[in-house]
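Chapter summary example.
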Amino acid sequence: MNLLTSIKQKASTMMPELIAIRRHLHSYPELSMQEKETSAFIQSKLTEYGIPFTSGIAVHGIVGLIRGRNPDSRVIALRADMDALPIVEKNQVEYCSQNPGVMHACGHDVHMTSLLGASKILNELKNEFEGSIKLIFQPSEERFPGGASMMIKEGVLVNPAPEKMYGQHVLPTLEAGKVGMKPGKYMASTDEVYLTVKGKGGHGGTPELNVDPVLIAAHILVALQQIVSRNLPPQLPAVLSFGRFIAEGRTNIIPNEVKLDGTLRTFDENWRAMAHQKIRKMATSIAEGMGGECEVFIDKGYPFLVNDDKVTADAKQFAIEFLGSENVVDLDMRMTAEDFAYYSQLVPSCFYRLGIRNESRGIVHNLHTDKFDVDENSLEIGAGLMAWMAVRGLGAVKSEESE
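The structure predicted for these 403 residues follows.
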């Protein structure tokens, strides 16, 4: 039996276990930097599989290592994120979140399940390939400064150093049974923008006695949209959006200050820096011109994510071998962000997408929503394809041998 067939059979046989793992993780989600029980569960599975690991990296992170034949010859890394989101789940399923106000609404339960499944498969086949596979279970992808940057600072990319890296993320717009990839720039950088507009509050019926921060903030909000629409080169995508506008007054009470929170996303570091300057200058100038002031804080977040052309081209070929060309699709750039970008800027990487959509079962809801769910048939592909990519990435088999 060749390795491809063996991996497919093992992934299929593991399905009941994969579903059980995913449902346990989904039932007990934990927020960023609070993944204590999640980490303990992963450690228990790695121990069960006989895979050595180090825990406590960036608080709750885990790094396992599978050593094949001639283990120091080549090293690749596989990564899954662990944290959940502050969302109240509305799904009526037996594995609904048991932790009130916390939900795996971004598929990290699937990511962990896939990597655990791949880990078990690879460890059982470690005498069939040369090199080592590093297993990275990372906390806090959803919150700045990002668990990836923290784990990198604590040495996750050394001793041994991977020569390439793969990461997987679910995609609700892609049917279960398919995967998608995009070489080059794929996901945007992300910065958090915080504005505090200060004026002089008072009675709503005597606006002439006030310096109205609500009106000032409204002018700033509208004007800032010009930064993208009037300054951005057509070939360069970017987004500046504000999702929070807090003016704690009443119908007849003008508050003393207003807070606006937003996000800036782009794919160009020079334009990113220029946009920061324009946001500061425009916001402060408008506020000053209207008699108030504006404090601007921009929290520079994740860099843009770059998929290495060669690693991604190879990964696409590996996926075609595993799934068939009809089930491997090309993706467009996305304005969403991922702290896998920190890895991709240091190690040639491929961050690919796993389809989880099933319209006939109503599994159609987007990421970060209270009814997000996945077609669990995708777990077999999630684990099996990741294992296949690992052995192919190590050069354990050649293309013609996999056919």
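To summarize the output: The mean pLDDT is 96.
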